[in-house]
Amino acid sequence: MSMLQAITFDLDDTLWDNHGVMARTEEGHYRWLLETLETWLAARQLAPLGVNYAEGLADYLARRQQLVAEVPERRGDFTWLRLRALEAQLEASGLARSTALMWAAAAMNEFHRLRVQVTPHPEVAPLLSNLRQRYRLAAITNGNIHLQRQPLAEYFPIAIAAGELLAPKPDPRPFLAALDRLGVAPAQALHVGDSWEEDVLPAQRLGMQAVWVSETADQALPERVERIAHVRELAELLTWLEKRGL
Question: What's the pTM?
Answer without folding.
Answer: 0.91
